[in-house]
């Protein structure tokens, strides 16, 4: 058997953009709540069966990201001190924007890694629990060949 016969067709850029938009929409529509007495445990709702599931604990920030955040904060502080002498706000605004973008991206990544849910194109990018996932994929696994 030839490896070329087993080639997987990749989606087009338009399809990838559409999938990204669907995933972003599904992430934004997640229902997350804190309902415990300690206020530390967060719950997320399955988008298929509406069951509440406890989210995983927050993971430590990667070295690269935490290091970059620290560097940006120091650069902003130094630029603000120097700004009193040179009146240059463009650099400060650029650094603050980069820091804001980095923090937003890290918050999004943190949310996704804490979810006890699964998502795929088969589920229309909806976030579903493991029981719903099994129900969705069981027919494919047990399909006769």
Task: Give a description of the structure.
- This protein has 145 residues and is mainly alpha-helical.
- The protein has helices at 13-28, 63-86, 89-114, 130-141, and strands at residues 32-34, 42-45, 52-54.
- It has two domains: 13-56 and 115-145, no CATH class; 60-114.
- The chain contains four helices and three strands.
- It has a three-stranded antiparallel beta sheet with strand order 1-2-3, with no helix packed on it.
- Strand 1 (32-34) and strand 2 form a beta hairpin.
- Helix 2 (63-86) packs antiparallel against helix 3 (89-114).
- It starts with 12 loop residues before the first helix and ends with a helix.
- The mean pLDDT is 79.
TL;DR?
With 145 residues, the chain is mainly α. It is built from four helices and three strands; from the N terminus they run H-E-E-E-H-H-H.
Overall 3D form:
elongated
Number of helices: 4
Strand runs, count: 3
Order of neighbouring strands in the sheet with most strands: 1-2-3
Would you tell me the overall average pLDDT? 79
- Compute the separation of the termini in Å: 18 Å
Low confidence ranges: none
Question: How much helix, percentage-wise, in residues?
Answer: 40-55%
Measured on Cα atoms, how large is the radius of gyration? 22 Å
How can the largest sheet be summarized? 3 strands, antiparallel
> How do the SSEs run, as a string of H and E?
HEEEHHH
> What structural category characterises the helix and strand content?
mainly alpha
Estimate the strand proportion: 5-15%
Number of domains: 2
């Amino acid at each position: 058997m030839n490896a070329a016969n087993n080639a997987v067709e990749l989606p087009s850029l338009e399809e990838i953009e559409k999938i990204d938009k669907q995933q972003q929409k599904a992430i934004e529509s997640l229902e997350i709540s804190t309902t415990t007495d300690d206020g530390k445990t967060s719950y997320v709702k399955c988008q298929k069966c509406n069951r509440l599931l406890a989210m995983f604990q927050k993971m430590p920030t990667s070295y690269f990201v935490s290091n970059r955040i620290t560097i940006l904060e120091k650069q902003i502080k130094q630029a603000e001190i120097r700004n009193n002498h040179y009146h240059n706000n463009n650099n400060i605004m650029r650094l603050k924007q980069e820091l804001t973008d980095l923090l937003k991206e890290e918050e999004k990544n943190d949310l996704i890694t804490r979810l006890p849910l699964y998502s795929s194109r088969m589920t229309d990018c909806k976030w579903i629990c493991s029981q719903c996932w099994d129900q969705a994929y069981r027919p494919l696994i047990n399909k006769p060949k």
